[in-house]
Amino acid sequence: MSTARTRCVALMGLEGRLIEVEASVAGGLPRTVLVGLPDASLYEARDRCRAAASSQELAWPQGLVTINLSPASLPKAGSHYDAAIMAAVLAAAGVVPEQALERVVLLGELSLDGRLRAVRGLLPAVLGAVQAGYRRVVVPRDQVREARLAPGADVTGVGCLREMVAFLRGQEVPQGGLEIVSEAPEPMVGAPDLADVIGQSEACWAAEVAAAGGHHLFLGGPPGVGKSMLASRIPTILPELSVDEALEVAAVRSLAGVGDGEWSVRPPWSNPHHSASMASLLGGGSRVPRPGAISLAHRGVLFLDEASEFQQKVLDSLREPLETGEIFLTRSVHQATYPARFQLVLASNPCPCGYHGVAGGRCACPPQKVRRYQDRLSGPIMDRIDIQQQMLPVGRALINPAHAGGGRERSADVAQRVCAARERQLRRLAGTGWRTNGEVPGAFLRTEWPTPGGMGLLDGPLRRGTLSARGVDKTVRVAWTVADLSGHDKPTEQDMWVALGLRQGLPQREAV
Ligand SMILES: [Zn+2]
User: Fold this and answer.
1) What's the CA-to-centroid distance between 506 and ligand 1, angstroms?
2) Which residues are listed as membrane-spanning (predicted)?
3) How far is CA 509 from CA 18, 312, 383, in A?
4) Of the given ranges (129-143, 274-288, 397-411, 416-430), which has the lowest mean pLDDT?
């Protein structure tokens, strides 16, 4: 009996764990068995490997072939084990030298004609291999760029089984035409910019405060006022991601099967449609759950346009990730936890037709229908929203000098202020575990950093019932961000006024 072993990676959520793939060939009736908790998709691996071998004129060993994946306790699924299984079998059969497999991790799916095909989750798998001390990885040629995003990885791309065999025999495998991506791509000329948003200076300011404090934001207003346009520009004013964060974002994309071998320090943006299923929003799938839209928004912005049109249970399901910053998905065999720490931006029309309360009123929706429409957005989700901003039609905004203003500031300039405000927060919140005002419970702010002058302002609306106790907390939270943006050590009375306006979605002063 002869034995050979090599390695692959199993993915638990974003985390890659090293798997040893061992093959032994013994005499007896020709048979191939797989042991070590493989799921159904891995049994198909056996058949794919056999077919691939014969298509490339490599003989599958006669006799009993046993393939063992260990540790057996780790659940294993997916088609990316093919390359490692094939290599171990070929080494056990003496087709390739066994020592060639020693320090290498192989990843990829074999097609029946012997090509090595791209697999989902390659980047986190390569990251896992490098972390476990295995820098040499063999990957499908189409994914070399993606694999090379992993710092320290020594990547070889192979197009087919024959090339893989050549590599394992120590022959040169041409890697031409695959440039190394070490730097994030330069921002595109003509990329979305806050300056594209015309006549909405007040809403741009609300977006700036939301970005600066990590506050969840609601944008209301009739169709065509630029709610989506503004929301899609929020990532352009958020602080850039660190390299580790950018890699994490690229790893999630890889797992979701939308990785393109690119990475960016720009926070991501994800905007699922209101008809999106629970699985596409939260993540799901039959075998290994895929990350959904909320994980693709990790460290960036999750934008729900026409939020009132989303199913109630879909909106309610956001509660867990909003609370914990991750989502736990469970399927019959596999479980996965994916990161989902995002800034939530909701947009909604005021009524089904969209024109309720708009000057020149074209709305014919019955009052109870308007009410029902707006009520869909109450409860746990709206409780998370610190800033509510109503956007007026541009025509009116342009006529009303109070709302026109400049409003044409470039993202880069706003981003600088946002960055400075974030730095103030990081300094103040050092040691608390919180990083932005948006994360700090309002009660903590009230007791730890009281702002006696400004608090008096809230008494009136509180007594009149136009502001709830929870609303007070939110106002204080936003006031701190306004103070951070203005360079104040603590919120002034004016900061509190501004926060109150942002909280209630009305222009300043009219709020009370
Ligand atoms: Zn209407």
Assistant:
1) 20
2) none
3) 60, 34, 23
4) 397-411
